[in-house]
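Subject: Sanity check before I submit

Could someone independently write out the structure tokens for this chain? I want to compare against mine line by line before I put it in a report. The sequence has 265 residues.
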Amino acid sequence: MSLELTGKDGFTPPFGGSLYGPPPYEYRKAQQSWITYEAANPDAVRSMLPPGVEPDADIPVCHAMVCWYPWTTFGPYNEAWICVRVKVNGVRYWYMPVIYTDNEAPLAAGREIWGYPKKLATLKWDWGGTAQGGTYGEQLVFTVDRPASQRIMTYTFAPERVADPSELEVLPFLSLRHIPPSEAGRKPAASELVALEVASHLYTAADGRPELYSGRGSVTFPSRSTTDPWHLFEAGKIISTVWANVDFSLPLGVVVKDYVAEGLA
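---
Independent answer below. Compare away.
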């Protein structure tokens, strides 16, 4: 039996009824907002990085990103994550230590293909208080709860001006794909750093300007949870806050470090 299963057999278990198909995975009219900031606790951030991955500055630079995906290959969903700007062998990346979603299929694909440390959570993208019976507001509020009674992150953004794409710092995303052994005494099935280049396209307005806005933002981590330690990425100085409306595609990644092959796992 070949493990290169395609067609009626499917791409992932359960074969014959795959949870998701092969990449690339397509995203259309994705709304994303992110705050780039200096970490308030550099040592706490470093404690969340794997061997060989180091911040590229004495005070680690992070970004918190929140997303509403109205149409994707996986169906619609919300997502939120924290990244740290790092260097591996002199190359700079955004390393992803935590990421939460509210859809089963992208959770499984993210963990299995690229090693994204996804968990299910209760996420809400809200441009005002009407969802709670209130009035519209001037700002986006995105919340992450896990479980539903515990607030992990609160994110806000209020747009102020059209931004220029040259203001964005575009780097590959980096993640640790670690699959524990299934038998005692064996090495992990995989332990590798995977880099992903994401090709994206900004929508443009009728006047030809990009749907990219800069503004005021904040990010807080109310709960000090050892199960969901997002508070380790507490924000210090805010560098920038933006919102974008984009299309993009997710292909397979590239392994940049193999801990098993190097005898480090």
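---
OP: Matches mine. For the report I'm noting this point. The helical segments are 42-46, 104-114.
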